[in-house]
Amino acid sequence: MSKAVIFDLDGTLIDSLADIALCCNTALEISGLPQHDVDEYREFVGRGVNVLMTRAIGEEKDALYHQKVLADYNTIYGDICSGGCRMFPGIPQMLRNLRAAGILTAVVSNKPHAQTEAVYLSTLNGLVDAWYGQNPGWPTKPDPCGVRYVLEQLGPDVEPIAYVGDSEVDVETGRNAGMPAIAVSWGMKSRSFLLDTGADAVVDTVEELEKLLLEKA
To answer: Above 90 in pLDDT, residue 217?
Structure first.
């Protein structure tokens, strides 16, 4: 039986906060709406692009501007996803080491599927075995449907050993999928916040994460 690790994408494998903030602020500026500091986006992201838009636009203006800002954001950010994203230091080698140890890897993100696939093609190609982004009509994380989907793609005899992410949404996703949830402290949320989520473990370095995953396998 093969072992597998499922990863969140933004804030876990790729350092995307600044890019998301820049692209969303640009889309807001096009529509004449107020922009936000990068750190504010830590509270905006994690539950899918529609929630991101509502939080960035403001609920009182969301119905008027949502579709326009969303379309502009998807165009601008889609180009960044296709052009290549920054992975956190040590992530590429960790993924190679896991695969060398016979551990399958996959990504499940609340990022729209087209953007998730673009990140795979531009940045993660050859480093992960399956990927899933949010599709219209499918629930977003913490619903475990995306996790179940990638496990099916990995094969019938795969045993997941952990879901790894950087937020409370990811901890809930792992719990809902019936697997241990590991939180990383280098992403969108602070270590103190993550300790309160009920994660099975909180790790501070990529090396610590790799060691823990290899031990679980």
So the answer is: no
